[in-house]
Amino acid sequence: MDVTTARERLEDMLAELDRSIGVLQGDPVAVREHSAADAGSDLTDADRAQAMLAVATTQRRAVIEAIKRLEEGAYGRCVDCAKPVPEGRLEARPEAARCVQCQGKQERRR
Questions:
Q1: What is the model's pTM?
Q2: At 78, which helix (H) or strand (E)?
Q3: Rounded Cα distance, 15 and 9, in Å
Q4: How far is CA 34 from each of CA 39, 42, 43, rounded to the nearest angstrom?
Q5: Which CA distances in Å does 59 have to 2, 13, 63, 70?
Q6: pLDDT tens digits, residue range 76-88?
Q7: If you write DSSP's letter for every residue of 15-55 in order, what string do you get?
């Protein structure tokens, strides 16, 4: 993926994540009268929104880091082994920081 395309995709992803985070940070439950069953459902909705916010925030951080790598000329190189990240991986995940092998090692450590 060329630098211009990568930058456009990453900036589009960042804008979309910012919109999503803004929506998720709003009050997930409108103020209204509830039955006991509604209260349980609202709690579940709030928990789900909080989990989605955490995922979006983590992905936003990864996109910002990818933009920094792009600016530094390190985009497309694995942050662990410095080998090229496969083109297909960058097409699927423009924010990818690691090659498939190093990403697998990272996930096994968790």
A1: 0.79
A2: none
A3: 10
A4: 6, 9, 12
A5: 22, 9, 6, 16
A6: 999 999 999 999 9
A7: HHHHHHHHHHHS-SS------HHHHHHHHHHHHHHHHHHHH
